Amino acid sequence: MEKIKELEFEKSLTKFTSAIERLENQQKSTQKDNRLPITKLQQELKEKTKEIYSNITPWQIVQIARHPQRPHTMDYINTIMEDFYELHGDRIHSDDPAIVAGIGKFNSRTIVFVGHQKGKNIEENIAINFGMAHPEGYRKALRVMKLAEKFKFPVITFIDTPGAYPHIQAEERNQALAIAQNLYEMAFLKTPIISIVIGEGGSGGALGIGVSDKILMLEYSIYSVISPEGCASILWKDQKAVEQASQALKLTASDLLKLGLIDVIIPEPLGAAHRNPSEAIKIVGSYIQKHIELLSTIPISEIVNTRYKKYRNIGLVLSEETEE
In terms of residue numbers, what domain contains 36? Predict the structure, then answer.
């Protein structure tokens, strides 16, 4: 099992995980029965983890959302999907590995799957541009979603990106237009769409595959118009103000649910998804099944109308005029 990379605020857990690992190794090499002390340490680790995660801050949630050991899109696909067939290219420019798109079976039901893909190390991230998609990535996503519409397959999108690729080459290939086109087309796509924020949902890069009937967020994921670092630089003129920015942006799942911008929070295993990826994937799979079944009972005309009204009402402010 891969050793967990503990975040700064999790450092107090290291003494427990190290001691458990040492006793387990000793038990394997010497056949000494260490079950009792291991069980005691595991319980202490559980209690300490509960204590830490019961007092978590928005900035700490940002760090969890970016943890390299959280399950990424392909981890979910490889676990919950059968016969997944990936589709490549936008038929205009090239293929973009920062967005994965394809067709497969989920619990015997054919679905279309689209998601941002991040890497687990620096080499993988460089190869896929840290999950920051080019215009061709968004055009590929739309091409596959239109295929889903044609054959009446549900669409599942996984959001996990710092944002769309902010480079002049991307703008030369119409980055803004590609995202805008996706927003328009997804608003009226005649098939159910479920979006799940599995890690970092950043700016238009996230929204480019995020217009949907149901928006679900993992408990320790984030969704925001700008990163805390970017916000701190603009509003506070100081990147060290990231904690203040994280608080002000209301980017956590609990904040967004209160604001009515998402529909459901998906609980994560104790200590977040990076501590138990397989359990996190299993939980997400159960939520996908639940919401696919729910949407499958609703006429598609009603689904599209409800989706349109949902996004028209976001940000709507009602006020009463007062007489002077």
Answer: 8-55
Across the range 171-190, mean pLDDT stands at 94
Residue 269 near residue 259, CB atoms below 8 Å: no
**pLDDT over 60 (residue 1):** no
pTM score, whole prediction: 0.90
For the chain, the farthest-separated pair of C-alpha atoms sits apart, in whole angstroms, at 86
3-state SS, one letter per residue, for 266-305: ECCCCCCHHHCHHHHHHHHHHHHHHHHHHHHCCCHHHHHH
| 1 in a structural domain | no
- For residue 290, give the nearest of 144, 158, 107, 152 by alpha carbon: 107
- Asked if residue 79 is part of any domain, the answer here is yes
Q: Which residue has the tokens 């891969």?
A: 2
- pLDDT tens across 28-45, in order? 778 777 888 888 988 999
Number of domains in the chain: 2
- What is the distance between the alpha carbons of residues 31 and 185, in angstroms, rounded to a whole number? 62
Residues 77, 15 within the same domain = no
User: How far, in Å, CA of 304 to CA of 295, rounded?
Assistant: 11
Instruction: Give the mean model confidence (pLDDT) for residues 182-201.
Output: 96
CA distance 32 to 37: 12
**Does 319 reside within a domain?**
no
Does position 324 have pLDDT exceeding 90, yes or no?
Answer: no
Regarding whether 216 and 108 lie in a shared domain, the answer is yes
Q: What is the CATH number of the domain that holds 140?
A: 3.90.226.10
Please tell me the distance from the alpha carbon of residue 149 to that of residue 130, in angstroms, as a whole number: 29
Give the per-residue pLDDT at 213: 97
Q: Following DSSP, what letter does each residue of 139-163 receive, concatenated?
A: HHHHHHHHHHHHHT--EEEEEEES-
Q: Where are the alpha helices (DSSP H) in the chain?
A: 14-30, 35-53, 58-65, 73-80, 122-127, 135-151, 168-172, 175-187, 203-207, 228-231, 242-249, 253-258, 277-296, 300-313
Radius of gyration of the chain (CA): 21
Residue 133 in any domain: the answer is yes
